[in-house]
Amino acid sequence: MDNSELHIVMVGHVDHGKSTVIGRLLYDTKALPEGTVDKVKRIAQETGKPFEYAYLLDAFEEEQKQGITIDTTQLKFHTASREYVIIDAPGHKEFLKNMISGASDAEVAFLIVDAARGVEEQTKRHAYILRLLGIRKIYVLINKMDLVDYQQTRFTAVKAEVSAFLATLQLQAAGFIPVSAYYGENLLQHSVKMPWYTGKSFITTLDSIQAKPTAENQPLRLPIQDVFKFDQRRIIAGRIEAGALQVDDQIKLYPSGRETVVTEFAHWAPRDAKVDASVGQSVGIQLQDEFFNQRGEIITRSSDTQQPTVANVVQTNLFWMGQAPLVAGKNYKLKIATQ
Questions:
Q1: Which long-range contacts (C-beta less than 8 Å, at least 24 apart) are formed by 56-59?
Q2: Could you give the number of structural domains in the chain?
Q3: Residues 204, 224: one domain?
Q4: Who has greater pLDDT, 217 or 124?
Q5: Other CB atoms within 10 A of residue 218 CB
Q6: What tens digit of pLDDT does each residue of 252-288 get?
Q7: Angle at CA 16, nearest 5°, toward 44 and 21?
Q8: What is the distance between the alpha carbons of residues 299 and 289, in angstroms, rounded to a whole number?
């Protein structure tokens, strides 16, 4: 199995079957905790509703009663090839804030479109947000093919409609897959009910997507959280956000660009002693030279070819989620790592 982990986001207009796609996928790949299906069937029976694969995603009984996905949920499953993280983003416009937060972590997006209804309001809104977030690898799942008798002509028509809209956003879909999530058609393997479709199934498509380099394989980024003094020792503390670090590494501190060498990893007891650390670990390091260091500075390895860009102007897409409106000309504070 590939050690990489691919983050995907599922978006789509409410009622186009996004939750059913994910629920059926988790069910078919046996990724659900034991007892989940029985619990959902019991809740469905108590509320007088038929069992739906979509209910498998709704972690809270209140959400199941309302029949909508509110929160942004991260769900893991795996194939024989690698691990996957599905970011399930809400479809209702009231929860677009959650959708933006979730989708920002994704490497590839799957846009779910109902074969019978085609492109609708939230389909357009979600595609636009994916563009703003910089997600360019977008696949389209044309779902509920069973409701249109698995007709190729309907698939072709919806494909053309989606393609035309994406073109207005300067986007092009990486692929279109006709599926019936409720019946599991074209999810794990090719459907005999759509012999006219000769492309890859959903899961085969997933396995063929190349993941970005993991954080472990990226250049070192260690934002300084604080500086402590113990006896004669001066310890710089922080969490490694990318890459790895070890004793005797020559490092650069930004924004100054000053260089020095890591001499030791601080530890309380001999059993905690170590000579290297990697992404996700919080560390305290000692340096060969004493500079004036402060919270917010970034430590990198001098040997890394990718170094931070130092500037006092930044251009970005900003998603404003505050209750009060964004006011032009007003001063705001930006939090960048620990700065």
A1: 56/22, 56/23, 56/26, 56/27, 56/32, 57/19, 57/22, 57/23, 57/26, 57/88, 58/19
A2: 2
A3: no
A4: 124
A5: 16
A6: 999 999 999 999 999 888 888 899 999 889 999 999 9
A7: 65
A8: 14
The reported pTM is 0.69
Which of 141, 176, 208 is the last residue in one of the domains? 208
- Tens of pLDDT, residues 70-123: 445 677 888 888 888 887 655 555 556 666 666 667 789 999 999 999 999 888
How many angstroms separate the CA atoms of 243 and 250, rounded?
Answer: 14
> Which secondary-structure segment (H or E) carries 33?
none
Cβ-Cβ contacts under 8 Å for 141 (sequence gap 6 or more): 21, 110, 111, 112, 113, 177, 179, 181, 202
Domain boundary among 181, 208, 235: 208
Q: What CATH code is carried by the domain that includes residue 239?
A: 2.40.30.10
**In the structure encoding, which two tokens stand for residue 260, read together?**
């020095």
Report the SS3 class of residue 258: strand
